[in-house]
Amino acid sequence: MEETKEAVNETDKEHRPEHKKKMIDRIFPPKYDFHGMLRTQADLTVKAIEAFVKWLQEGAKGEASEVRKLKHDADDSRWHMETELIMAFSTPFDRADIYDLSRQMDRIIDSASDTAKEMAEFNIDADEPIMAMADLLLKAVQSLSEAIQLLECNPHEAEKLVPPLRKLHKDVERSYLDAISFLLNGEVTMDKMKRKEVYHNFKNVMKNVGFTVDILHRVVVSLI
Predict the structure, then answer these.
(1) Do residues 19 and 64 both lie within one domain?
(2) 17/124 same-domain check
(3) pTM for the full model?
């Protein structure tokens, strides 16, 4: 009876997705370093947000040229990865998740770049609420990048970073609501309306971080 149970367990194991994946990897070894590509893109995302925060600290005047340059670098990195994703026979985890994680990271930089462009056009300086949200945003992308660095070698440690990342998202939501509440006290001016739009854009940048974290967590769960 015990032998029969063991045979059934072995049969079940052979039909599990992770077992089939290992077999395929032995027959067709992964050719492309998708973990490395995601790490590179995560690094570029951090550098872009660091450049964005520096631009804000320096007065938010003129074009955020360094942010725009890093945006193009991240686009090139992502397009290169997409080409190899199409060519790859096997991937370290679901190829749709690789694509989604890369795409959503790209949207973080895109939305930050759009925010900088709008601030320059509106001639809006970086006030206290903007800097508070920017600091939280930078902490979030740094933590996100750290989780992606850990994804290949230690997904359990990457998973531990997910709850603090979600807390940072909520902190930005709280900062946004406090800023809007304070802003709309008293007479509504054109400057206040412009700032309201910029605050909303910061909220959207952080929302893109939140979407990225959700995809990352899905990947982590599949790897653990």
Answers:
(1) no
(2) no
(3) 0.84
For residues 196 and 134, membership in a common domain is answered with: yes
Residue 25 and residue 61 in one domain? no
**Do the beta carbons of residue 112 and residue 10 sit within 8 Å?**
no
Listed residue (116, 132, 113) closest to 177, CA to CA: 132
Per-residue tens of pLDDT for the chain, all 224 residues: 545 555 445 545 555 544 444 454 554 555 778 999 999 999 999 999 999 999 999 988 888 999 999 999 999 999 999 999 988 888 999 999 999 999 999 999 999 999 999 999 999 999 999 999 999 999 999 999 999 999 999 999 999 999 999 999 999 999 999 999 988 888 889 999 999 999 999 999 999 999 999 999 999 999 98
Same domain, 17 and 61: no
| Cβ proximity of 52 and 116 under 8 Å | yes
89 and 10 together in one domain: no
Which residue in 8, 205, 186 sits closest to 110, CA to CA?
A: 205
Three-state SS at 38: helix
Same domain as 168, residue 94: yes
Measured CA to CA in angstroms, residue 161 lies from 32, 37, 137, 140, 145 at distances of: 26, 20, 15, 10, 10
